[in-house]
Amino acid sequence: MKNRFVSTLLKSRSILLLVGAVSLLAGCGRSDKVYPDRGVNLVGIDGRNPLPREIYDQSANDASVKLAADGTTSRSLAIQLKSDAGITNRALLGLSAFDEEKLDVLDGITFDSKIQSGSSNASVILVVDLNCSRANRRIRVVTATHDRLASGVDQSNGYKRFTANFNAAIWTTMGDQPITDNGTILVPEVSAAPVSLADLIASTQKGVCVVNAKSGDKALPNVETSGILLSLSSATKSELFINRITVGTKIIDEKTWGQQ
Description:
Elements: H1 2-26, E1 55-57, E2 63-69, E3 77-83, E4 91-95, E5 101-102, H2 103-106, E6 108-117, E7 123-129, E8 139-144, E9 153-154, E10 160-165, E11 172-173, E12 179-181, E13 184-187, H3 198-201, E14 209-210, E15 213-214, E16 224-225, E17 228-232, E18 238-247, E19 250-253, H4 254-257
Antiparallel strand pairs: 1-4, 2-3, 3-18, 4-17, 5-14, 6-10, 6-18, 7-8, 7-14, 7-17, 8-11, 9-10, 12-13, 15-16, 18-19
């Protein structure tokens, strides 16, 4: 009787260990979710690549975002964006902390980048809610592509600082549909001359918000993404590092994410 009990106990433990192993393996896959918990040091959608809190790898196809040594010093870390050749391979760095922040408060986005290979810099993408209302979402996507950003200002160690102000004439939608209001074009389609976001911001009394949401835009993954995205895609294989991002008055850099 005792031997039968011991045998049963050992079998139960084996089953528990097997379940635990399967759970761990499942955690290493890609999870298409922007996690709302801002109090935990999370990883991106590729669970094998640790990323600082509130930063996500939401890349499409053969592309990635991860924390890596940038070669500045033996210990310095930066966010690496890497994409294979082809515009469908899009590295997307998502910033989740600005959900439902209004554009007129944030004012603009600045980032310091260093190109490792290829010639393309990062573009800025915003997922916005024109109604700024959870009950009545009106989601659109606007972008300031890398070729519209002014020449970067030299920083140290090969980095340059680029700025995408909302009042600068550098913005279009991501696709072929403009954002309109009673027939007036507020933000034109991607092929048209870019404009500032001033008319868009002034178009509603509630203001226009950045939102973490599923946009439905063909250029983005068909899942919920962060409202602010830095994007790298090119006809050639490309890689760059970003070591500092400023959104409004908030600075995100190595001092924020620490040595990991």
